[in-house]
Amino acid sequence: MDIVLFGIQGSGKGTIARAVSEKFGFHYFETGAELRKLSQENSPLGHKVKEIIEAGKLVPNDIVMEIIEHFMETVPANESAIFDGIPRKQFQAETFDALMKKLGRSYIGILVHVPEDIALKRLTLRRICESCKAVYPADYDRSSCEKCSGELVTRSDDNPESIKTRFAAYFEETMPVIEGYKARNMLLTIDGIPRIPEVRDATFRLIEEKLLK
Q1: Which of 27, 31, 23, 5 shows the shortest CA–CA distance to 192?
Q2: Bridge-partner residues for 29, per DSSP?
Q3: Bridge-partner residues for 153, per DSSP?
Q4: CATH at residue 84
Q5: Which pTM value belongs to this model?
Q6: Which domain does 123 fall in, by range?
């Protein structure tokens, strides 16, 4: 069973997705990382992605689906994948559904639910490592990254105005996708308000109880 992980910006879903991948051995798909990796490959798809990135264009949905199919070719039938940040829009969800059906994959959505006001507070207070891009919450009290000792900085777009614009896109574009999963009984929900270690452990328990029996 594959997992599609949903959550508003600031929910911690990226951190949770990586933790799930490490804990259960799920193959981790994050669109940006896959694009960067593919752009370094000497392959027809890699060249195509590199040209799009270098031109500063958005990657078309058909290419995104091609990238997902390429990724899924590396996932054995008896192993699972976790998707972080895709599908984002309704038309993308429809093409994703069609691809997963074609590949014979079963999957379910998990929503890390965090109210908008809490997500806003988290984003305005978080810091990011300049070197490795690791994200640290407000209660992390060091000025350097524990992974690579890089300097921690605040992202230029982590201001209330920019964040609210990103939230608006989430509610307008991604929430209908989430509601669609819910309507098809394909959605599990995790309370994302506690600290990340607690949310992580709750997600582990949910996966063990619902998906790995």
Answers
A1: 5
A2: 83
A3: 128
A4: 3.40.50.300
A5: 0.87
A6: 2-210
Q: Residue by residue, what is the 3-state secondary structure of the chain?
A: CEEEEECCCCCCHHHHHHHHHHHHCCEEEEHHHHHHHHHCCCCHHHHHHHHHHHCCCCCCHHHHHHHHHHHHCCCCCCCCEEEECCCCCHHHHHHHHHHHHHHCCCEEEEEEECCHHHHHHHHHHCEEECCCCCEECCCCCCCECCCCCCEEECCCCCCHHHHHHHHHHHHHHHHHHHHHHHHCCCEEEEECCCCHHHHHHHHHHHHHHHCCC
**Residue whose entry in the numeric block shows the structure tokens 């984003």:** 123
Comparing CA positions, the residue from 55, 138, 6 lying closest to residue 63 is: 55
Partnered with residue 127 across adjacent β-strands are: 136
CB atoms within 10 A of CB 76: 7
Mean pLDDT, range 137-164, rounded to an integer? 87
pLDDT at 37: 85
Nearest Cα to Cα of residue 199 among 120, 147, 137, 134: 137
How many domains, in total, are found in the chain? 1
Sheet of 152-153, strand order:
135-136, 127-129, 152-153
Look up residue 53 and give its two tokens: 């990135």
pLDDT tens profile 151-170: 999 887 788 888 999 999 99
